[in-house]
């Protein structure tokens, strides 16, 4: 990460997706040599608390006990995945988004699953996703339960479009590659279908964009192989296809051109549901930690 002095935060709700996220978060904490914080959110008044106990009239104390069981199981999973790391757990009486945002204020990374239940239902398809991605002060890593553990030898793919967020994503990708001894593959999506009189200009502009992006790469003196390419495809198709051989796909919190509306439109949904590796969303606020 840009500044490795905080911790990794992950949400736990007992789901398969949450379990995968916890294992991945433990691995990320181990890579960085920082603690792991496991958070479980409890909302007394809502029916999507763990196992719908509130809707069934179960006393609040029993909800606390259920939360302890979920956190205990999560901690066990994390210790099995990375015995060397420091682990702490916390039950937050708050919405899932607020729990993650509060615990993630001094974090290097928030890790979430792309699906869940209980305290983290709909994390990436509803209001919780919007709040976390809009207000997190650190990058967010999204993992899927049905995707095998990332291949440490695969490149980190980063989508760039000339925006400040795209440049931030590139810096994030290079830092992550240095951490993992991986390479970086920079991708700019250029859809087909330009009129003949515009096609050459669009291609030339894309080439200049990539040249500029490569000139801005700072490896910090570390050996990080970086390659770049223009992919003639829609953004979602380009990144999902690239994810098949990647260890991670990194994108900016917002973008323009080939990656406009990344977090709130079809591209984000395509990556979350179809990417074959974890997806990292670099936040602009991360610059404040440099």
TrEMBL record:
Matches recorded under InterPro entries: Rossmann-like_a/b/a_fold, Universal_stress_UspA, UspA
A Pfam family per the record: Usp
Boundaries of every UspA domain copy: 4-144, 155-283
CDD domains, alphabetized: USP-like
Superkingdom, natural source: Bacteria
Family: Belongs to the universal stress protein A family.
Cross-referenced PANTHER family: STRESS RESPONSE PROTEIN NHAX (PTHR46268), UNIVERSAL STRESS PROTEIN UP12 (PTHR46268:SF6)
Name listed for the protein in its UniProt record: Nucleotide-binding universal stress UspA family protein
